[in-house]
Specification:
Blueprint (H helix, E strand, L loop, with lengths): L2 E6 L3 H16 L7 E7 L3 E3 L18 E3 L9 E4 L2 E5 L4 E4 L4 E3 L2 E4 L3 E3 L16 E2 L4 H13 L3 E7 L9 H15 L6 E6 L9 H13 L3 E3 L4 E6 L6 E5 L4 E4 L1 E5 L2 E3 L1 H4 L26 E3 L12 H19 L12 E8 L2 E7 L8 E3 L5 E3 L4 H18 L28 H5 L1
Parallel strand pairs: 1-2, 1-9, 2-5, 9-20, 11-18, 12-13, 12-18, 13-14
Antiparallel strand pairs: 3-4, 6-7, 7-8, 10-19, 15-16, 16-17, 21-22, 23-24
């Protein structure tokens, strides 16, 4: 009897999962029952999301980072373009708004995170896409390019409304690239750049947070911490405005770049038992099996796992998730193999970037990635910048296609890293003295 695998979402996680599963069952079909793979998404526009960061600065064009979703899937994988109404986890069926029903033996939720603009008062009110922008979607990144080009000086504020967000280092990268951009234009001394974040530091991991805070200070970028944006208010003259925090603090701006709140997809909230209050899918952080039911799995930005909502995380999760789907279909015990591995290039401007590599239990460490000879960690370098640029080719031609990337696996590598020196232990004699 044919097993039906339905994958909701044709982004990074859904595409690489579908192609990896197809690759496995094509080569091992004789050992398994036949499998049908169906991918569902509401549109046919696959966006290379790391590229959105470059669009406002004229370093990329939106046409270079958007391709058809269906073209990224193997021809034997069915692609259905429709909105998802809801999932009945008890009936093992996905209901589409067009009326089609998709019964499944295994469901994969990979619909990512959506931008919840309406959760912040005034965000999309007066000044939206004129003085207030986001670069987290194609339209916003494109409009912001024109706004930056016309910006001649004043207060530029980059603001994260709340966590979690997709690619948590991207707002910091925007600050660094803005510093470079205005320096090249010869007006950096006329621009005051601030970074307002709800975190108590520049980043979530203390080691990386300290390094990034130092870079912000070095580049003259003001860091505003523990700022929880409650409202975006424009001045009466429309020339600028202010971010108003729930604690009453205000951050004035002439141009604001806001990363809005994120949530899971709306249909998750309409699917009884599938999601949490933010429509993210409660998921075992090591097996990637959803807690809702044993035949449901989830990965990437759609989950509530305590890992960064970053493309690298989705890539590493995908290897473990596909293996566990195969184990599930073979009635084998799942492998608790995902260790929270995340790997992030951080553009720091002037043709350089910083690289961090960490997991659930290990802070970003200095050294090299992926081994002793490789890209430097926690250090700005031209090599890291070129690595980030090169990754776009790897993304389209290897990662999405479900191919393994030589030397880079799901587990965080320890080779090449400078392990912290453990605190010296006192001798028994010293302890008793």
């Amino acid at each position: 009897m044919t097993k039906r695998i339905v994958i909701l979402g044709g982004g990074t996680g859904g595409t690489l999962t579908a192609n990896r599963l197809h690759r496995h069952f094509r080569h091992h079909g004789s050992q398994h029952q036949p499998v049908e793979i169906t991918v569902v998404d509401q549109d046919d526009h696959h966006v290379y999301q790391p590229g959105l960061l470059f669009v406002p600065f004229g370093l990329a064009n939106h046409s270079e980072i958007v391709r058809p979703r269906q073209a990224q899937l193997h021809r034997d994988i069915e692609f259905v373009q429709d909105l998802i109404d809801h999932v009945d986890i008890h009936a093992d069926t996905v209901y589409l708004q067009g009326g089609r029903e998709l019964p499944y033996d295994v469901l994969v939720v990979a619909t990512g995170a959506i931008l919840a603009f309406d959760e912040t008062e005034g965000l999309t009110g007066p000044g939206w896409n004129e003085k207030v922008f986001t670069f987290y979607d194609v339209a916003g990144a494109t409009g912001l390019a024109a706004a930056l080009d016309n910006f001649e000086g004043g207060k530029l504020v980059v603001n994260v409304v709340d966590m979690p967000i997709k690619c948590p280092v991207a707002p910091l990268e925007f600050c660094f690239l803005a510093d470079w951009y205005f320096t090249d234009r010869g007006i950096r001394d006329k621009v005051e750049i601030s970074y307002a974040t709800p975190l108590d530091g520049a980043f979530t991991k203390p080691v990386a947070s300290a390094a990034l805070a130092s870079l912000l200070e070095e580049k003259g970028i003001h860091l505003v911490t523990e700022f929880n944006t409650g409202e975006v208010a424009m001045n009466d003259d429309g020339a600028g405005g202010k971010l108003i925090g729930y604690d009453g603090r205000e951050v004035p701006f002439d141009l604001a770049v806001v990363v809005p709140m994120h949530s899971g997809a709306d249909y998750v909230g309409r699917s009884e038992g599938l999601g949490d209050d933010l429509n993210f899918v409660p998921t075992d952080k090591r097996t990637l099996q959803a807690t809702a039911k044993s035949n449901i799995f989830s990965l990437g930005d759609a989950t509530n796992v305590p890992a960064s909502k970053a493309g690298s995380v989705t890539h590493f999760e995908g290897e473990v998730l596909v293996d566990n789907i195969i184990r599930f279909l073979d009635h084998e015990e799942l492998d608790s193999a995902y260790d929270g591995h995340a790997n992030c290039f951080i553009e720091t401007g002037f043709g350089k970037a910083l690289l961090i590599d960490f997991n659930y239990d290990t802070e970003p460490l200095p050294g090299h990635f992926p081994a002793a000879v490789g890209m430097p960690l926690l250090k700005e370098s031209r090599m890291n910048h070129l690595g980030k640029l090169m990754f776009q080719w790897v993304y389209w031609h290897a990662l999405l296609q479900g191919r393994d990337i030589p030397g880079i696996g799901a587990d965080m590598p320890s080779r090449g890293k400078e392990q912290p020196t453990p605190p010296s232990t006192r001798t028994t004699q010293g302890a008793s003295a």
